[in-house]
Amino acid sequence: MAANPAPALALEAVGKTFTMHLQGGLRLPVVHGVTVRVLPGECVVLGGPSGAGKSSLLKIAYGNYRCDEGHVLVREPDEIVDVATAEPRRIIRLRRTTIGYVSQFLRVIPRVPALDVVIQAAVEQGFVPDDAATRARTLLARLNVPERLWTLPPATFSGGEQQRVNIARGFVADHPILLLDEPTASLDARNRAAVVDLIREKKDRGVAILGIFHDEDVRDRVADRIVDVTRFASAA
Amino acid sequence: MTQDLPLLSVRRLGKSYGARTGCRDVSFDIHAGEVLAVVGESGSGKSTLLNVLSTQLAPTTGEIHYRMRDGVMRDVFALSDAERRFLLRTDWGFVHQDPAQGLRMTVSAGANVGERLMAVGQRHYGHIRHTAVDWLGRVEIDAGRIDDAPRSFSGGMRQRLQIARNLVTHPRLVFMDEPTGGLDVSVQARLLDLLRGLVADLGLSVVIVTHDLAVARLLSHRIMVMRHGTVIETGLTDQVLDDPREPYTQLLVSSVLQV
Lengths: 236, 259
Ligand SMILES: Nc1ncnc2c1ncn2[C@@H]1O[C@H](COP(=O)(O)OP(=O)(O)O)[C@@H](O)[C@H]1O
Ligand SMILES: [Mg+2]
Description:
heterodimer; A: alpha/beta; 5-stranded parallel sheet; 4-stranded antiparallel sheet; 7 helices; 9 strands; about 35% helix; globular; B: Rossmann fold; 2 domains; 10 strands; about 40% helix; binds adenosine-5'-diphosphate; binds magnesium ion
């Protein structure tokens, strides 16, 4: 590795405060001055108790929450994009080419079968439909999603089944950056192990991962560093 | 080059009805393949805006420029009649909430689709019918219904027929006014799924007016929130819905169960 490798993803002095207008303009400061840099092939884990702001930081990195202070720098082959200020269509392109995200819960789209949910994610990144389908099938199988479920929309699946479809969707493409919000939370030991393997393979291929893992065993097996988010708690 | 030019560019657009404001100071760009949802409660100026954008109403102030197929940005209110006709009949589509407004209810489904083709000069009957059958299939209407008038169709089928009638000329920009409005929930889901697929496959640019945030979430890339005729918040769809900034947007988002 080079002496000073450039981060794939860098949160620089990020701060977030929610203002709840329906509660009389109540201000809810969450974090302030968060600087976290993730190198290619590295897995950085956000730690800290529930409510510390871990999920909010992942959402800010994905452009899902606004970045009130600071910058979110994403490296692409020929430019660095600041998610904090990028145009919506630039963020959409980043999500297609560069940043994958596994949310805590699958947001189901009515009528779309599980297999198609995963295939679509690969097609969006530019895989031809045949390759996308092969990748999707391989992943669903590795995550032990029973084949009889593949043609059904995930709306009726159990929490664990939905989450595995969600993971397959996040991992099916070749995004150089992955954001993982408790991907193993509702999984049994066998499926946790499958996810650990998938994460390690991504790391071996140089993917930069910023994640949240409550399961200590999983965390120990994937994390290079743990950043305690309480360090950045806003003085309320 | 033209890839970086917007398809539609709107600046400081306003429309008043005498002393009453329809919409005021609206500015935005739409690029090829972008879907913009305009949300807000009824009376907030959404439909006025859509009618001005589609040149059915003249604006009181402001400008609209459109990138014609030759790549040149043109003021849509300064086009020749022929150019304007080309936009309305070919390069643009307009999907009304009430299909009866966008369809001819007394002629056959096939003629409803074929008519837009004839308007752009197609004369070969076999070809027109073949295209109509193809489009009925794409909107999941049985080819056996091609000679039936939409009067005999269900609400969902009528809406799908209206969509086929609009898309048959391969428009680049489609305006939609509450396209899932009067439909049952299950019919809505099917229509949304169909629209999502068509918009992605055809790379359409769309301005869709809806008061249903779930529709905006599913179909759009960007959202513009309107209130009292002005745009109060705009941004990436999931950002505006998950982290709304303005009091009114927070109220809208909190008023629905889960989007
Ligand atoms: N969209 C939102 N609007 C208002 N407050 C929010 C929103 N999302 C998160 N919060 C608040 O921000 C704080 C941090 O939450 P979160 O990022 O989910 O923490 P963690 O993931 O560490 O449990 C909590 O107080 C939470 O209620
Ligand atoms: Mg969390």
